[in-house]
Specification:
mainly alpha, Rhopdopsin 7-helix transmembrane proteins, two-stranded antiparallel sheet, 12 helices, 2 strands, 70% helix, elongated, GPCR_Rhodpsn_7TM, membrane, Prolrel_pep_rcpt, G-protein coupled receptor, receptor
């Protein structure tokens, strides 16, 4: 997908020759007048189809786990008043964007990759999906960063004034607006083109005659959505780990109390390491793929192009499954709260809002 600034959001075609700059005719001439390019463009489609029975179940698992896990997380946060705090609002926003990512990114990507007619959802859905897909990704990444910063201030500077609910609302609104702004250039260069003779329709991002602008957008997107957030998350959690390691509880403690505190610290350290590792590992393959494609598309084997791109996309989408477990399911109090809520629902004749709720801060 040469010419794409953010190909990981859904584009699934490799290089298309840009012989003119006359709108859709550029793509039509590239396919209709260059049979050699036409054959190389779809050289790896047959290989991709051979992995269909493996890839579709993997994507389906991501959808089921991602939607169910994030929905339950949102359910508990929304239904429990004592969980209505800034940290949990950030986590709820992360869960919502991850759930939306699973619903929009995965089904349309699969259908586009395996349907021999290409994009079959129409022009309107082409632009809508290519808008929603990257927005949800950016929102998830920026929210992960906001959670890390919020936890940094809560742990390293506990005496400072905490973020208010109104400030949290402004931050979340800013995250969504910033994400939409970052997506605008890509949407402006998205084309829905029908090749009637070939029976093929594509929905792709192309920067016709704007190679420098495309590269500037691609690398700035990499910086803003991966390098800087990963650096912020690593720095925040390193400071948290250092603070906890050097934290000494006041008063005299028994051996059992000291061992319990060390066990809690080890658990937090493991959680911090998992959060950083999950964020870095899940998104690394697709960014490496895009950088190699931008440097020289020939660095990626033509026959395996689509398969590699789809596997990298699958790895990135798996982050939506990791987040509910890392930010909620691994917390004992959250699991207890969830069990308590379902127990209350099953009690006959006792309203749910009369059930005792424990104060939980994730």
């Amino acid at each position: 997908m040469d010419g794409s600034g953010s190909g990981w959001t859904g584009g699934l075609l490799p290089s298309v020759s840009e012989k003119t700059t006359e709108g859709h005719s550029a793509f039509e001439m590239a396919v209709q007048n260059d049979s050699a390019n036409h054959s190389s463009l779809f050289a790896d489609v047959a290989l991709l189809q051979s992995f269909k029975l493996l890839i579709i179940p993997c994507y389906s698992l991501v959808v089921v786990v991602g939607v169910l896990g994030n929905y339950l997380l949102l359910y508990v946060i929304c239904r429990t008043r004592k969980m209505h705090n800034v940290t949990n609002f950030f986590i709820g926003n992360l869960a919502f964007s991850d759930m939306l990512m699973c619903v929009t990114c995965v089904p349309f990507t699969l259908a586009y990759a395996f349907n021999p007619r290409g994009w079959v959802f129409g022009r309107f859905m082409c632009y809508l999906v290519f808008l929603i897909q990257p927005v949800t990704v950016y929102v998830s990444v920026f929210t992960l960063t906001a959670i890390a910063v919020d936890r940094y201030y809560a742990t390293v500077h506990p005496l400072k004034k905490r973020t208010s609910v109104s400030t949290c609302a402004y931050v979340l609104s800013g995250i969504w607006l910033l994400s939409c702004g970052l997506v605008a250039p890509a949407v402006a260069h998205t084309y829905h083109v029908e090749f009637r003779e070939e029976g093929l329709t594509i929905c792709e991002e192309f920067w016709l005659g704007q190679e420098k602008e495309r590269l500037a957008y691609a690398y700035s997107t990499l910086l803003v959505t991966y390098v800087l957030p990963l650096s912020a998350v690593c720095t925040s959690y390193l400071c948290i780990s250092f603070k906890l390691r050097n934290c000494v509880a006041p008063g005299h403690r028994s051996r059992d109390q000291a061992e319990a505190q060390r066990a809690r610290k080890r658990k937090i350290f493991r959680l911090v390491a998992l959060v950083v590792a999950a964020f870095g590992v899940c998104w690394l393959p697709i960014h490496v793929f895009n950088v190699l494609r931008d440097i020289d598309i020939r660095l990626i084997n033509k026959r395996h192009f689509l398969l590699i791109q789809l596997l990298c996309h699958l790895c990135a989408m798996s982050s939506s499954c990791c987040n509910p477990f890392l930010y909620a399911w691994l917390h004992d109090r959250f699991r207890a709260e969830l069990r308590k809520m379902f127990t209350c629902h099953h009690r006959i004749g006792i309203p749910t809002n009369h059930c005792a709720m424990a104060s939980v801060v994730l």
